Amino acid sequence: MAEPPVPIKDLRLLDVKLGQLPTWLASLNYTPRAFLESCKRGHNRFYAKYWEPKKCGISGPAMLLSAYVVFSYFVVYDRLKEERLRKYH
Questions:
Q1: Is the predicted pLDDT of residue 87 greater than 70, yes or no?
Q2: 8: how many CB neighbours lie within 10 A of its CB?
Q3: What InterPro entries does the record point to (predicted)?
Q4: pTM for the full model?
Q5: Selected residue with higher pLDDT from 55 and 81
């Protein structure tokens, strides 16, 4: 028996076809509460995948460390750019 079609708003981003993308984006909830809930879901998925397992390895801490390094680089980029453009006599 065929399964009933799933509404577009209930599809995941990877399941949405390119023609359905504008409709899917219009059906999303853009409130601050929805944003916080999505951040919480992402945190919970990351925690469940990389920190909770007994044999999680180095991948979780390595990703957090690399994100910290990239963020720090963006913070000091203006200062680094000014030093690069100076001429030392």
A1: no
A2: 15
A3: F1F0-ATPsyn_F_prd (IPR019344)
A4: 0.49
A5: 81
